[in-house]
């Protein structure tokens, strides 16, 4: 095993941690002039502003892999050969009733020649209880 394939794992920052950037001594930004001895350790403070719920992301990934697998069976082909089918989980989660969700899914699967009822039913069961993934927001600005 080569040294390049050795994997190291660094701990992730906690919610309250801050990231500091330290400039090299004598190196400044363009137009900022030389850095004097008092500023040799220049610290700029940045905040990590994006938080991801890893558990929710993992559930979403597993669901998307299951959808691709099921669509491969329904369309009787590999993923690369599959017709363009768009199933937006967040869009489905915005809809209030399972009947409306099922209707949206049936519209997406209109070109499928195999029965899709079992797929729709199973997908609706799997998304029950999931949350919509919202765009990350910046805090403290």
TrEMBL record:
The UniProt entry, under InterPro entries, shows:
CPI-17, CPI-17_sf
Write down what this protein is called. Answer: Protein phosphatase 1, regulatory (inhibitor) subunit 14C
An example molecular function term from Gene Ontology annotations: protein serine/threonine phosphatase inhibitor activity
State the Pfam families in the record. Answer: PP1_inhibitor
Q: Does the keyword Acetylation apply?
A: yes
Organism (species) = Astatotilapia calliptera
Q: Which UniProt keywords apply?
A: Acetylation, Phosphoprotein, Protein phosphatase inhibitor
Asked if the record carries the keyword Ligase, the reply is: no
Tell me which SUPFAM superfamilies the record gives: Myosin phosphatase inhibitor 17kDa protein, CPI-17 (SSF81790)
Q: Member of which family?
A: Belongs to the PP1 inhibitor family.
Q: Which GO terms describe its cellular component?
A: cytoplasm
